[in-house]
Amino acid sequence: MKLIRDAQGHYRTKRGTAASQTEILEAAEQILRDRFERMGTLSSPSDVRAFLRMRLAGLDHEEFHVVWLDHRHQVLAVDRLFSGTIDGAAVYPREVIRAALAHNASCAIVAHNHPSGIGEPSSADRTITEILRTALLAIDVKLLDHFVVGSGQPISFAERGWL
């Protein structure tokens, strides 16, 4: 969606109607997504933090996303695969595998948010990460990282030595 800023600093749609906060946030996410997908090769966990934080931090329910990468770590796509409630989202490895094959991905970075704002990974987060790592390896896709997004800096499993 294309938004236009008027002389008073208000955002409007192309039709001239006032843009809602949701429309503004959707446009901002699309801008970040476009920039992120044009970044080229990802070289560190810090490369993805701003994008994931913008995409996930403000949600009032849990969502699980995957960044799909080729063998040179260039971004192929970003998918929201699962959406849940205020304290959890069911993640199905079979669906993650299906998406990996659809994108012909070589690598993946997974991420989910904690609507509570507490970014510390739970034991369930660590368990599903290991299940996904094993499942993806079976089809030759490497899980590079898992980020948990809370109110602070997103936490990287790779940086903690968990992957």
From TrEMBL:
Domain MPN: residue ranges: 41-163
GO annotation terms (biological process): proteolysis
The keyword Signal belongs to this UniProt entry's keyword annotation: no
Superkingdom to which the source organism belongs: Bacteria
Pfam families reported for this sequence: RadC
Database matches in InterPro entries: MPN, RadC_JAB, UPF0758, UPF0758_CS
Keyword Zinc: yes
GO-annotated molecular function: metal ion binding; metallopeptidase activity
Keywords: Hydrolase, Metal-binding, Metalloprotease, Protease, Zinc
Entry protein name: DNA repair protein RadC
Species name: Pseudolysobacter antarcticus
Gene that produces this protein: radC
